[in-house]
Amino acid sequence: MIEDRVAPGVFTADKAVFHVPSQPEGYVPEDSNIASAAVADTLFQHGYVAAVQGLSEVAPPIAEVPRTATAELASPPAVFIDAGKRYVKTVVRTPHGAAVVGTPFRDDHVPERHPGLEIPADLVRANQLTADVHQLRATLHDPLEEPDAGALEASHMAHIGRMSAERQAA
Amino acid sequence: MIFKQLASLVIGDTSSVKARRAPRKKYSERDLLRRESLIGRQLFGPVPEGHQREFFCLDDRTWIWYERWIDPATKRSQEQTTRYELHTNGVIKIQAGYPYKLIEGEELKNLADAMEQYRDRIAREIYHRDPVTKQPLAS
Questions:
Q1: Minimal Cα–Cα distance from B93 to chain A, Å?
Q2: ipTM for the complex?
Q3: For each successive 10 residues of chain A (170 residues), what is the average pLDDT?
Q4: Chain A residues within 8 Å of chain B (Cβ atoms)
Q5: How many CA atoms, within 13 angstroms, populate the side-chain half-sphere of residue B31?
Q6: A140 CB contacts (<8 Å, ≥6 apart)?
Q7: Considering only A3-7, A114-118, B83-87, B108-112, which range has the smallest mean pLDDT?
Q8: Which residues of chain A are within 8 Å of residue B31 when distances are taken between CB atoms?
């Protein structure tokens, strides 16, 4: 559980510190600068980052780093999955030491793009086509045709009852 | 594992489903996904012998590509589910055991092309509507 590796009481729900780098089942965004900026934004929105003595040991925050302080991102952010949740994680180096910092994955973390960077036409097309498919599907979809959970359960129970009766008869 | 369950839950056993013209009645979403996937699986060329392939739009932000085959070396069933998640600023490709990937360039174009063929074909063959205007086709 990721919570086991989070220093308790150190961070808000918006970010967490990991004891050790977990085994990544994630990715490094191709444009790591973009994700780096997203992580840094999150850190600085809260006005501080925590400092730890090393990557394998979590220490209480040594100091709060002011919003204007420079925190160097020492590794490209990567997305990790733990307990079914996604986190963006990176190593941040501050004047007070290095910290592994994670923030919950949000849609706007990845793939965030630089302001002014054009969204690919194929992406716009993909979103439009997906919307089209749903619009078409709605023309023949009837919620009343969805399998009724109660009926399925009743059928299942009837099946179990029959099996039980057969076993008893045998 | 989740992908596997998802694919089998949505698709189930489609071997007996025939790609016939859908009568104009209403269907459950699962029925419609099955029908759409019958078309989706054809978009990437012939399915190799012994392979099962599904390609369909799961919901308003997810597309699924499911492939199952028998490994000739081990004779064991193998499968791979690829999930494409659409975000406003990009498409993320998710495969179990592989790093997430933000797809761009040629790969994104190919995916969008496949989606377009999918939209066009299901519009005409299942929903009997013009793919762009969504108006009913003249019968």
A1: 10
A2: 0.82
A3: 30 32 34 41 42 27 38 57 58 56 52 52 92 93 65 53 56
A4: 24, 26-31, 79, 107-108, 110-113, 119-120, 122-123, 125-127, 129-137, 139-142, 144-147
A5: 18
A6: B22, B24, B25, B26, B27, B32, B126, B127
A7: A3-7
A8: 145
| Contacts with B109 from chain A: Cβ below 8 Å | 122
Radius of gyration of chain B (CA): 16
B residues 80-139 closer than 8 Å to A (CB): 86-92, 99-102, 104, 108-109, 111-112, 115-116, 118-119, 122-123, 126-127, 129, 131, 134
Q: What is the pLDDT of residues B1-40, one digit of tens each?
A: 454 554 554 555 544 444 444 445 788 888 899 999 999 9
Cα dihedral across residues A141, B92, B96, B69: positive or negative: positive
